[in-house]
Amino acid sequence: MVVGYFGFGGQLMASGENQVLAASSLGYAASGLLGYFGMCQMPLVAFARTNFMSVIMAIMGVAGMVSGGYSLPLLALTVMHCFDVL
């Protein structure tokens, strides 16, 4: 999942669409990777690892598809965040 967040988030960032979701997904992936290896226990980074962030980002992805259009990275990130919520 972390590799997918980095990959699709980077593609979305490079394409210039939905920059907020791309940056949030990259931060979520970096936070998860740091937390997995026990390297960062700051409260803000620990909060970024909660599943509530995936709920917000999944809603942002659906809103982006409704308002702006579909793209593979946007669809993949939205599906991954919906799967992460479960």
Description:
- The chain is mainly α.
- The protein contains five helices and no strands.
- It has helices at 2-15, 19-36, 43-48, 51-67, 72-85.
- The two termini are 13 Å apart.
- The mean pLDDT is 88.
Give the tags.
86 residues, mainly alpha, globular
Mean pLDDT: 88
Helix content, binned percent: over 70%
Rg from Cα: 12 Å
Strand content: under 5%
Decide which structural class fits the backbone: mainly alpha
End-to-end separation in angstroms reads 13 Å
Major sheet summary line = none
Short description:
The protein is mostly helical.
Write the layout of secondary structure elements.
Layout lengths: L1 H14 L3 H18 L6 H6 L2 H17 L4 H14 L1
Helix pairs in contact: 1-2, 1-5, 2-4, 4-5
